[in-house]
Amino acid sequence: MRLARVACAGAIHAAQPQQFADGRAGVRLTDGRTFSEDEVVWLPPLEVGTIIALGLNYAKRAKELAFSTPEEPLVFLKGPGTLLGHRGVTRRPADVKFMHYECELAVVIGRSARGVRRGAALAHVAGYCIANDYAIRDYLENWYRPNMRVKNRDGATVLGPWLVDAADVADPGNLELRTYVNGKLTQQGNTRDLISDVPALIEYLSSFMTLTAGDVILTGTPEGAVNVDVGDEVICEIEGLGRLQNTIVGDALFGR
Amino acid sequence: MPLGPCIVVTMDVPPYRLSGTVYGALLNHHTALQALGDAIHRPPYDRAPQAPVLYLKPRNTLAADGAPVAVPPGVAELEIGASLGVVIGRPACRLSADRALEFVAGYLIVNDVSVPHLPYYRPSIPFKARDGFCPLGPRVVARAALTNPDALTIRVFIDGELKQTAVTAELVRPVAKLLADVTDFMTLLPGDVLAVGVASPAPRIRAGQRARIEIDGLGRLENPFMAGAS
């Protein structure tokens, strides 16, 4: 099953995919009403707990950033204010030169996990989403990297469109990822190239912290993260999980 | 966002409960910067921090006054990171320093427990994100009850013996300035906590000892430390 969370008709609703007879895509609320995709406001598909993100978790990406493959997963944490739903807009400050997307497989924890071994790890997963974890490299400083001014910005972690049940994803270790900027393919990878795969990450994290239902692990991005500019439409796609759309906007919209 | 199961912090002012999100500012106490000396200008850092250096204590770390904190096996001592915690009262985005305190609901004591570590380039999160590594409380004291958050004395006692005395007057960014600079790039939400800075050197504690932190007007936060299973 695929579930979204949308705001429409005066409330927040759970919604499932709806295909209209004329081919348009939309959503069906649990009460039966249907809307086209652009008639609703897409929220992150769940109430997210702790947001755990991975850096340099694809070998070629580490090479692209001139890092050797890390010995221990490079984990950082993000706050809930950075989340944004499908079809939202993300601000690119006027003074920056390098802001890039990061298409990532997001793993949603469904059952508490502490001291879980690799073989049992996937039983703790509720499902999967697509994440686009923007970074602004101009703001990178060498203290507690990646620092929050780079990675914890308002509305710069796009999550959605759906929470796809784990049961509907045959192998999270073999999913194609693609990013398109204005329709042009700019990033491509496969989760089979993860340095620490999903079971390994759950084993590692749960060795020192309790993971709780609603916690989300952003598993890292493959090579090919390029600069985006105001007006660009960025679509991150993961096999079986859908397409996550976002548009880059400028300071003016925010009165800056 | 739900809090950890063990957290109980009384809060008698809006929004009446913590959100469960706790940020901390690193190197925001002059003594912490001084402890690094000239190293801040050398690799891997290259220069002193420009923007506030923040980290997040996830919800599994949150613990109440009195809750035992587990010292992981193989770790001899932990650091007691005693800090004033600012509790946000209203959505705080792009605050000006002169009005920032109006967005504060109140204050509490934060014990940002860490496994001692260096460097600060890219610390591994097990140093700071273990279960129970962020006791806070004992209650949120309303902003109106505290005249000046930048003139508080913080005392840390280990087994009743005074080990550290620090003053919030020595913050690199005083509370209002810190709120202004942080909210320039990230909105703080009602119930969020911002730990404003830990003085250096942070006192160390071993399993079997008790940490007590006192801050003027905020009471005392006391937690026993015990040997952990994993």
What do you see in this structure?
The complex is a heterodimer of chains A (256) and B (230). Chain A folds into two domains: 1-43, SH3 type barrels (Roll); 44-254, Fumarylacetoacetase-like, C-terminal domain (Fumarylacetoacetate hydrolase, domain 2, Alpha-Beta Complex). Chain A has helices at residues 59-64, 148-151, 198-206; strands at 2-8, 11-19, 25-29, 34-36, 41-43, 51-55, 74-78, 83-84, 88-91, 99-100, 103-109, 125-133, 135-136, 157-165, 176-181, 184-190, 216-218, 233-238, 242-249. In chain A, 7% of the residues lie in helices and 40% in strands. The N and C termini of chain A lie far apart (41 Å). In chain A, the strands form three sheets. In chain A, strands 1, 2, 3, 4, 5, 6, 7, 8, 11, 12, 14 and 17 form a twelve-stranded mixed sheet that branches. A five-stranded mixed sheet of chain A has the order 9-19-18-15-16, with no helix packed on it. The relative contact order of chain A is 0.22. Chain B has one domain (10-227): Fumarylacetoacetate hydrolase, domain 2. Chain B contains two helices and 15 strands. In chain B, strands 1, 2, 3, 4, 7, 8, 9 and 12 form an eight-stranded mixed sheet that branches. Chain B has a five-stranded mixed sheet with strand order 5-15-14-10-11, with no helix packed on it. In chain B, strands 6-13 form a two-stranded antiparallel sheet. The longest helix of chain B has 8 residues, at 175-182. Chain B starts with 9 loop residues before the first strand and ends with a strand. The model of chain B has no long low-confidence stretch (mean pLDDT 93). Classes of the chains: A mainly beta (256), B mainly beta (230). The A-B interface holds A 47-50, 52, 72, 74-82, 114-115, 139, 141-145, 147-149, 152-154, 207-212, 214 and B 1-2, 19, 21, 23, 26-27, 44-47, 49-56, 58-61, 72, 93, 120-126, 129-131, 185-189, 192, 230.
